[in-house]
Amino acid sequence: MPMASSDKQTGKNRAFRQSLGHAVDGLKALYRYERNFRKHLVVGSLAVLAGLILQLTVNEWLWLTLAIFLVLIAETLNTIVEAVVDLVVGQTYHDLAKRAKDVAAGGVLLAALFAVIVGCLVMAPALMRWF
Ligand SMILES: Nc1ncnc2c1ncn2[C@@H]1O[C@H](COP(=O)(O)OP(=O)(O)OP(=O)(O)O)[C@@H](O)[C@H]1O
């Protein structure tokens, strides 16, 4: 079993609880080390607050939730790419490292654009109903 010690596991998880614990560790690391992830969380929370105030319909909530989670997931993938690239090349400049990181960042930008579009399309009618 390739396990150095109980807190330095490199082998497979043996129980669902163990898998869940590592997933939660991943989320904690995202929150702790990724400034952009925290920013997206704040913006997403503000969008949820606006949704509560504007009393969105179920359909509108679905779009808003999809947009928020897409951005957070894109940021997660971006963080994975950055970590793996840094692990492989360290501080050495490499064209493929640049491409991988730039493409990952582009994915976050696409998700953020989608969120802006959804935000406008969902909030506009909700604001009309409000006034
Ligand atoms: N090893 C490398 N080789 C070539 N280019 C790199 C390398 N590391 C970083 N870059 C370039 O620098 C940019 C910033 O990389 P960095 O790892 O600092 O991401 P970041 O600024 O932390 O990203 P984020 O804003 O998502 O946190 C990359 O998008 C890439 O263009």
UniProtKB/TrEMBL annotation:
Localization (cell): Cell membrane
Keyword Cell inner membrane tagged: no
Membrane topology of the entry: Multi-pass membrane protein
Protein residues bound to ATP: 14, 34, 82, 101-102
Residues forming the catalytic site: 75 (proton acceptor)
GO process annotations (BP): phospholipid biosynthetic process
InterPro entries found in the cross-reference section: DAGK, DAGK_sf, UDPK
Cofactor: Mg(2+)
Cofactor note: Mn(2+), Zn(2+), Cd(2+) and Co(2+) support activity to lesser extents.
Signal sequence coordinates: none
Ligand binding (substrate): 14, 75
GO CC terms, sorted: plasma membrane
Ranges that cross the membrane: 41-58, 64-85, 106-128
Amino acids binding a divalent metal cation: 34, 82
Family membership noted in the UniProt record: Belongs to the bacterial diacylglycerol kinase family.
Protein name, per record: UDP kinase
